[in-house]
Amino acid sequence: MKRVFSFIIVSLLVSFLFASIGQVINLEECLRIGLEQNFDIRIMRNKQDISDRNVTWGNAGLLPTIDATSGYNLKSDNTNQTPADGSDEKSIRNNNTQALNASVNLNWTIFDGFNAQTNYQKLKELRSVGELSTQLTVESFIANLSAEYYNLVQETMRMQNLKAAVALSREQLRIVEARYQIGSFSRLDLQQARVDFNADSSRLLRQHERLNTSRIKLNELMGVENVEAPLVAADTSITLKPLEPKDVLWNSVLTSNTLLQLTQKDIALSQLDLKNIESRYYPYVRLNTGYGFSHFNYDLGSYDKQRTWGPNVGVTVGINI
Known about the structure:
By secondary structure, the chain is of the alpha+beta class. The protein contains eight helices and six strands.
């Protein structure tokens, strides 16, 4: 029974050793892969691209709009006319009128209380918000991935320490068993050695699960398709960088903190929203111009056909009450 138990433990240790063998990767390579494949970053970059494309004069309302329209109408009338002098009633059937029209119109809001200019400024601010949001996502990703990478380093170091502890307790058990056979140690000493070996082996099993969990989390952060792909951290130790002085850190927060910059952008957008509301109290000036063409066909009447064409122009001045 003792030999069977030892064989099982050795088999598990060998399987753990082979399970730990994988691609050796450093933090820089993890970040490179993650920045290319992480889904959250890719989504934020797509949103940023949309906000970049939205910054146009047309979306802000600073450019005129041009519409082209055309239409065809057919009108068919049936009429009964009864003269007042009592003569015979006159009937008119299928009096058709056909109308064909086409036009091109330009409408331009020349002034609307600086609303269009404010909208353009808002679009630029939203573009900045998109850039900062992408930057914040990247910063959070780098922080999370770096923390998980060094967690993997730490779990690997613990794994190595526990392997050494198991090897030591196994050797201790072998010595105790040998000395027990010759009567130097008691049965209690043998049982205690076995308890120590089993406890170290159990801790090694649990540490293997923690190491595997950290490896899976790191693969998930990098956006790897196979999250259970084996990998090994290239670093074997963790070196902490000394902290900067408090005043240096505080100045860095005030000038470079992305969350603070996003808050400032939110304040700027709120002020622009207020300007949009205030623009309603200004008068507006709108220009409209165009060119139209109409063609009519008559079955009855003085004219068989009629055509009209020409330009039109108008200016509208108003104020919201």
